[in-house]
Amino acid sequence: MGSGQRAKIWLMRANFALIALVIMFFQLLPLETLPRKWAPPDIIMGFAFAWSLRRPDYVPALLLAVILLLTDLLFQRPPGLLALLVVLACEVLKSRVLSQRETTFAAEWFEVALAVAAVTALDRIILNLTGVAQAALTLTLIQMIMTIAAYPILAVISQSIFGVRKLTPVEADAIGAR
After folding, report:
1. What was the pLDDT predicted at 177?
2. CA distance to 124, 126, 137, per residue, from 133 (Å)
3. CA atoms in the 13 A half-sphere facing the CB of 123
4. Secondary structure (H, E, C), 74-139
5. Measured CA distances, 30 to 25, 27, 70 (Å)
6. Please, which residues have CB within 8 angstroms of residue 47's CB and are 6 or more apart in sequence?
7. Whole-number Å distance between alpha carbons of 46 and 68
8. What is the pLDDT of residue 176?
9. Which pLDDT belongs to residue 1?
10. How far apart are CA 118 and CA 147, in angstroms?
11. Transmembrane residues, as ranges (predicted)?
12. What residues have CB less than 8 Å from 132, skipping those under 6 apart?
């Protein structure tokens, strides 16, 4: 792998971190003073899944863990739980990338929907088992559905604005050889 390719990979990793920080910044801005009756999609999770499925080398597990742990801390969620679940889901999706290169977008979206549902369900179950206070089930389900519905938009943004396209066979072979 040439130094130009390595530089691009590191630049895209920095882009992912910057995107996540910008999203966190805007989500933390106090624009509304009353609680919402709906929950917005988890955009960082959506981008993590989109980038993991399209270019797994752009989002290594350590980078995802650090960004998602920071997200947990800033949003006052139980530290590390959602971060761990999302990193595990991303790693499962990454492991399927090389065998699923030629799948349709509908199949990709279905895989992401299953991953989002699994992360949401496991998060709720673990929080219930440990007795941690959590949001109402309806808000959690709304956020899950909104995240699944927002995935096509996040995938298009990733591809058209940030240039995160599916692996070519040559790139996939290079990643598979590592």
Report:
1. 45
2. 10, 11, 12
3. 28
4. HCCCCCCHHHHHHHHHHHHHHHCCCCCCCCCHHHHHHHHHHHHHHHHHHHHHHHHHHCCCCCCHHH
5. 10, 8, 19
6. 16, 19, 20, 23, 154, 158
7. 12
8. 57
9. 57
10. 13
11. 12-31, 81-97, 109-127, 133-157
12. 78
Q: What is the pLDDT of residue 169?
A: 66
Q: How far apart are alpha carbons 130 and 173 in whole angstroms?
A: 43
The greatest distance separating any two alpha carbons of the chain, rounded to the nearest whole angstrom, comes to 52
Residue with tokens 């590191």: 10
Question: Rounded to the nearest 5 degrees, what angle is found at the Cα of 156, between the Cα atoms of 151 and 160?
Answer: 155
Q: Which two tokens stand for residue 125?
A: 């179950």
Six-digit token string for 103 = 């799948």
pLDDT at 37: 83
Q: Which residues contact 91 (CB under 8 A, 6 or more apart)?
A: 52, 61
Query: Is residue 51 a contact partner of residue 16, using CB atoms and an 8 Å limit?
Result: yes
Q: Which residues of 36-45 are buried (b: 16+ CB within 10 A; e: fewer)?
A: eeebebbbbb
Could you state, in chain order, the average pLDDT of each consecutive group of 10 residues for the chain (178 residues)? 84 96 93 82 97 93 97 94 97 83 87 97 96 91 97 96 81 58
Nearest to 44 by CA among 29, 54, 59: 59
